[in-house]
Amino acid sequence: MALATPAGTSAIAVLRISGPLCAGFSRSLYGISLSPRRAHVVRHRETGSNRILDTVVATYYESPASYTGEDVLELSCHGNPFIVRRLMDDLCARGCRLARPGEFTQRAFLGGKLDLSQAEAVMDVIRARSERALAAAQQQLDGILGRHLARLNSELLDALARVEAYIDFPDEDLPVEDRDLVRSTVDRVLAGTRRLLATQRYGEILRQGIRTVILGAPNAGKSSLLNRLVGYERAIVSAEPGTTRDFIEENFLAGAHSVRLIDTAGLNPAPGEIERMGIEKTYERARAADLLLWVVDLSAPTPALTREIFDLAHSPAILVVGNKADLVSPEHAAMALSIGELEKSGLPAILAPHVASLAVSAQTGDGVPALIAAIEKVAEGFQHQTGDEIIAVNARHAHALERARVSLEAALHFLRSEAQPPSPPELIASDLREALEAMGEIQGKFDNERMLDRLFATFCIGK
Ligand SMILES: Nc1nc2c(ncn2[C@@H]2O[C@H](COP(=O)(O)OP(=O)(O)O)[C@@H](O)[C@H]2O)c(=O)[nH]1
Ligand SMILES: [Mg+2]
After folding, report:
1. What distance in Å separates the CA atoms of residue 139 and residue 130, rounded to the nearest whole number?
2. Domain limits of the chain?
3. What is the reported pTM?
4. Is the CB of 315 under 6 A from ligand 1?
5. What local confidence, expressed as pLDDT, does residue 127 receive?
6. CA 370 to CA 368: how far, in whole Å?
7. Taking CA atoms, which of 13, 146, 158, 261 is between 20 and 30 Å from 211?
8. Whose CA is nearest to atom 22 of ligand 1?
């Protein structure tokens, strides 16, 4: 039993009870047999005293047609914390126990209502911070990842069957035709595995927001830009350079994507002691970024980019943001942001074609919508989409897929090797079996109680 709605005052609060005794329990509670999936308005009386605790709407779900797959009873009471407390105390006095976080979903998984990736998607649906994250979570809940894995699994099983057919005959090697067939199948499965693995970064971007680090010289207006983008005065803005030493992180929405914006200490070429520590941390953050916003002050000469920035710049995307556009003419802004000028201040020619630049004023807000649109476009660029499908695996999936990839590559090595005599089918079969097992783990096909307990412990109570 658990409260399935947030604690506090609300119109209604929902208590959820799951287990095989629900039917008899509700009869003894309310004196009637609740017909399944029908809302019944009933008085809930305290055991012993018989006083009325609340008038509730009771709904009974008969196994297996319920969220957990067991009999389930849901009580909607008035959303007053005192009522909720009394009802929960009463239910405990009548023999219920409090559910652990995620226990309902865990039971749904154990009862075969959901595979493990769908159970995880339940939490992703609840926690999604952007339209796109929600769409991805809903597709995963619908079983999209499971369907992709099922296709890879069935191909792998075919390959394994073909190889195993020769294991029992020690004198026989895999004939060339079979070897070629198995090899092309394993090649296909490996390509599919790699495609799924490649979605992990987008998965992180969906779950946490695209990590966007604001970089620039002191006083360029980095903190002002953060405040403007998140929509309130989150960071201290000051004319005195070097005010931001800690990292301020804040999420905001750029269209359908969530952005994790990180303000940093200005890259002062001659920093003091504390400032230097801040700058080192800035580089650290920048290395982990998906996107860098390089803020330059259009009203001052553009400072030369430092060597470290070029090194960082190879992996993430960069947007050059010319700030304080309100202080200069559009012509001056366009000039300062031209590739030629940026190259003069140190932008390497190989990066130039990949760098977009735009002028904004953090103070007036001019140009900020275009900047938000540009950030959204970068986030979109991380999406690996097949038609309308969004697949974005999480770290646990990626870990298992990585294991599958290694095993598949090992199998391919045996299948390709020109060694004479050819590698025995046992070795190939064992690698294929390992790959199958790793993939099965994603959907929870193999028992791993500790992993399951850990996973469900991250869920909400009542879910
Ligand atoms: N005119 C003008 N001033 C700005 C703009 N953005 C920031 N400033 C000013 O520039 C100074 C430094 O801003 P701040 O955001 O603290 O810069 P940071 O050191 O890069 O974080 C402050 O006095 C801001 O008011 C802008 O778009 N236009
Ligand atoms: Mg600042």
Report:
1. 14
2. 2-99, 128-199+392-440, 214-381
3. 0.85
4. no
5. 92
6. 5
7. 146
8. 239
Fold exhibited by the domain 214-381: Rossmann fold (3.40.50)
Amino acid making up residue 233:
E
Q: Which of 258, 259, 265, 205 is nearest to 235 (CA)?
A: 265
Confidence of residue 234 (pLDDT cuts 50, 70, 90): confident
User: Which atom of ligand 1 lies nearest, measured to the CA of 361?
Assistant: 27
Residue 437 class from Cβ within 10 Å (0-12 exposed, 13-18 middle, 19+ buried)?
middle
CA dist 404 and 149 (Å) reads 11
Determine which residue's CA is closest to atom 16 belonging to ligand 1.
Answer: 237
Query: Per residue in 311-345, is it b (16+ CB within 10 Å) or e — as a string?
Result: ebbeebbbbbbbbbbbebeeeebeebbeeeebeee
Topology agreement, domain 2-99 and domain 128-199+392-440: no
Dump pLDDT digits (tens) for 253-289: 999 999 999 998 877 776 677 777 777 888 888 888 9
Distance from C-alpha of 429 to C-alpha of 443, rounded to nearest angstrom: 22
> What's the CA-to-centroid distance between 341 and ligand 2, angstroms?
25
Q: Which CATH class is domain 2-99?
A: alpha beta
